[in-house]
């Protein structure tokens, strides 16, 4: 395949480059295969990107090389690409985030070596209102993803007691993320306080297994329940996004039955999915994260 080619996507012609570059050398996974994955997963991914300010995590030389985060949408973007201005207290100005809402926009972004796609918990049209609550479960070695499963199940018990539905996914890296869709009037101060309270509750109940303090030197052998992601200036890796690991792993939705089974059988290999495996799972399960788009739940008082 040539290093450069033009690809017409839904009537829009895009120039793609460096197509033979190995983005995942250990897997022999090229930029062409990265673009192909995102095109194939687009019907499931795009609804989760729609109207959400997007941070691009770019790896120009591949997944094992230096990267940078790009919040400000590139000045050389196509004229047809929509952006969303979001006020930044740190920069004291509006940051114009890319809105990747259709297939041409997605292919354009991926061609910039944006292996990872990180989204806001808010819609651009209501930036102060998070649509979901998220808990990022990050294991501190020697703890691993199976320890995250145990903590996830404890969290699920709490959610069930509040009559809240929750949805787990792999981070695509070393941990798990648990989402509680809200899609109801709520503020970040409320969701952050709620998440902080639950993280402290878990730490109190299971002090040998859980830590809620953000200091990394306290995490050894425990699962850090990161409640701080519930913030207007933070982003979380989007469902179905690739991750920059040795293999082309993907942040993948799971069923609670899979979490329970992995914990009971200690089968951590069941919780890692590469791009081809995710496409197969979508044929089997469909979009397990679809309820996050519409399910309305109220945040309970704590």
From TrEMBL:
Coiled coil: none annotated. Residues 30-289 form the DNA ligase D polymerase domain. Pfam families: LigD_Prim-Pol. CDD domains: MtLigD_Pol_like. InterPro entries: LigD_pol_dom, MtLigD_Pol-like, NHEJ_LigD. Signal peptide: none annotated. This is DNA ligase D polymerase domain-containing protein. It comes from Lucifera butyrica.
């Amino acid at each position: 395949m040539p290093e450069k080619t033009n690809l017409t996507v839904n009537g829009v012609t895009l120039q793609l480059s460096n197509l033979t570059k190995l983005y995942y050398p250990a897997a022999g996974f090229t930029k062409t295969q990265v673009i192909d994955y995102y095109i194939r997963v687009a019907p499931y991914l795009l609804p989760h990107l729609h109207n959400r300010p997007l941070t691009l995590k770019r790896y120009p030389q591949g997944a094992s090389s230096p990267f940078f985060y790009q919040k400000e949408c590139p000045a050389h973007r196509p004229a047809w690409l929509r952006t969303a201005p979001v006020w930044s207290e740190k920069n004291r100005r509006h940051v114009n985030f890319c809105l990747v809402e259709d297939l041409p926009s997605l292919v354009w972004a991926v061609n910039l070596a944006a292996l990872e796609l990180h989204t806001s918990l808010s819609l651009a049209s209501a930036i102060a209102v998070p649509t979901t609550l998220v808990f990022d479960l990050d294991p501190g070695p020697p703890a691993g993803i199976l320890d995250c499963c145990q903590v996830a199940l404890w969290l699920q018990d709490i959610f069930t007691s509040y009559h809240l539905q929750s949805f787990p996914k792999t981070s695509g890296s070393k941990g798990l993320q648990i989402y509680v869709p809200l899609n109801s009037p709520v503020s970040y101060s409320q969701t952050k306080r709620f998440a902080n309270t639950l993280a402290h509750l878990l730490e109190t109940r299971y002090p040998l297994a859980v830590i809620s303090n953000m200091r990394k030197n306290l995490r050894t052998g425990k699962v850090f329940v990161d409640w701080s992601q519930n913030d207007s200036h933070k982003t979380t890796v989007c469902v179905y996004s690739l991750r920059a690991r040795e293999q082309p792993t993907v942040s993948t939705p799971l069923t609670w039955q899979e979490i329970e089974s992995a914990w009971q059988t200690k089968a951590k290999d069941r919780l890692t999915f590469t791009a081809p495996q995710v496409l197969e799972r979508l044929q089997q399960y469909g979009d397990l994260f679809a309820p996050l788009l519409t399910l309305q739940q109220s945040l309970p008082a704590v």
